[in-house]
Specification:
Length: 465
């Protein structure tokens, strides 16, 4: 018996979680948080299975939409291992501790409001002690290392090129007759020709493929992003404004630092200060430096010459609340990289309030934006947006640089699946909003693939020898 049950990231882009059952062995690919307001139908609190029934957890990478409910697994009784790459162990510890901290703060303020209404207090999904317990069970492995799970089930990780340590996960199942069935989960597939990281591994084998499709309906800007980014930075600095770059602390932040390092050290960008307003990003950047062997050849050549590609004169990491308040008071010639993407709250909200209404300033959107997000509204050209309860008139210039995405676009996804040694018997599409995923589904079907867009909680039994 071989079954797959889709417990998250089904017609949405968070909550990655898929259970593969091989006879009496239950293997969980990822166990991530549902994060978007658009995904209110999905519950983080209620796992749709008994954690005690899970034998192994295989984590594709450390982003919390893939890892964020793992501490809850242990809180509810899971006692097994979390198997991932070596960088993913370190990165997950940082990200999950940050997630626990945010949940604790959010719950505290929510309970203040509930107390006024004489309502029962809420409990956070998990606490720091649950993260610390979970991390004890993480085990890190190298790419291409063969990992024995049972006598007839092995695992290999291949470089997904998405973030540091991200993996395409290959389950290799041997039958009593000696025949092999491969179940491959892509995790998130990275963009090609990106700074710092290597391209996604191609040419793999897969009988059954669980494949992401975040950008299954669109193409990134194929042109070189360096000149575009440099021109935006220069023009904003010359206008005397600030350039706000909301982005994830892991991956995107390090890539932008890498680019700015080149601009500054080549003398192409002068007279500005660069602030990374995220204590988490500072810690994650230190982890990047620990795993330089995972970098691509260009980054390794810089390191060999004695150049730290993630540091330069004028770069400041903001680590305390006092430093954060100082950065918020800066009015000109600052490039501010702020954690968390574009959302309604936290540090990014303060920077939006301080700069969005000023025509000399700029905002760069660098990542996927959900339908209801502030970023989506800005990209649509809306002239007024609501940020933390305050209506703001949009006067700043809004830019979008799609080439910075750490997800492959529809062409990249298609080229990756075309690189497989043979067509999979079935392709299950996950991790994409419904219209995006359906567009890619149609492309695959038209190209001869047996592909389906799965539903939440859908279970499919498959043939294997």
């Amino acid at each position: 018996m071989l079954k797959i049950k889709f417990l998250g990231a089904a017609k949405c882009v968070t909550g990655s979680c898929h259970m593969v059952t091989i006879e009496d062995i239950n293997i969980l690919f990822d166990c991530g948080l549902f994060q978007s307001h658009d995904e209110s139908d999905y519950e983080n609190e209620e796992l749709k299975f008994d954690p005690k029934d899970i034998d192994f957890v295989i984590l594709s990478h450390s982003h919390v939409d893939h890892s964020g409910r793992i501490p809850l697994l242990y809180k509810k009784g899971y006692e097994g291992r979390v198997i991932c790459t070596k960088p993913t162990v370190d990165l997950s510890e940082c990200l999950l501790k940050d997630a626990a901290k945010i949940q604790g703060e959010d719950t505290y303020f929510e309970n203040l409001e509930r107390q006024k209404k004489d309502m029962e207090p809420l409990q956070p999904l998990y606490e720091m002690k649950d993260v610390e317990e979970a991390i004890k069970h993480f085990e890190g492995f190298d790419y291409e290392e063969e990992i024995k799970l049972t006598d007839n089930i092995k695992l290999k990780f291949h470089d997904a090129g998405h973030i540091l340590g991200s993996a395409i996960c290959e389950l290799i199942i041997s039958s009593s007759k000696g025949e092999i069935t491969r179940v491959v989960f892509t995790g998130d597939i990275g963009n090609t020709n990106k700074d710092i990281l290597k391209d996604p591994q191609t040419g793999l084998k897969a009988d059954y493929l669980i494949m992401e499709s975040t950008y299954g309906d669109r193409s990134h800007n194929d042109k070189d992003v360096y000149p575009e980014f440099l021109e935006i930075a220069r023009s904003t600095m010359e206008a005397g404004g600030n350039l706000i770059i909301p982005c994830f602390s892991l991956g995107r932040t390090q890539e932008i630092i890498y680019m700015l390092n080149k601009f500054v050290e080549d003398g192409k960008l002068k007279g500005c200060s660069v602030y990374v307003d995220s204590p988490l990003a500072s810690s994650l950047t230190d982890i990047f430096k620990k795993y330089e062997e995972y970098f691509d050849r260009a980054a390794q050549r810089l390191i060999a010459k004695g150049d730290d590609p993630l540091n330069f004169n004028g770069l400041h990491f903001v680590k305390t609340n006092e430093e954060a308040e100082e950065v918020q008071s800066v009015k000109e010639k600052a490039i501010i990289i702020v954690a968390g993407g574009l959302h309604d709250g936290g540090r990014v909200a303060n920077h939006l309030k301080n700069n969005l209404t000023r025509e000399e300033c700029g905002i760069i959107v660098t990542s996927y934006q959900g339908r209801a997000s502030i970023g989506s509204k800005l990209l649509k050209g809306e002239k007024n947006v609501r940020v933390s309860g305050e209506n703001l008139e949009v006067k700043a210039k809004v830019h979008y640089i799609g080439g910075l995405s750490c997800h492959a676009d529809k062409e990249g996804l298609f080229q990756w699946i075309e690189s497989l040694e043979k067509s999979p018997s079935k392709v299950f599409l996950v991790h994409g909003e419904e219209e995006n995923i359906q567009c890619f589904n149609e492309k695959l079907v038209q190209s001869g693939y047996d592909a389906i867009t799965v539903d939440y909680m859908q279970e499919i039994e498959l043939e294997y020898n």
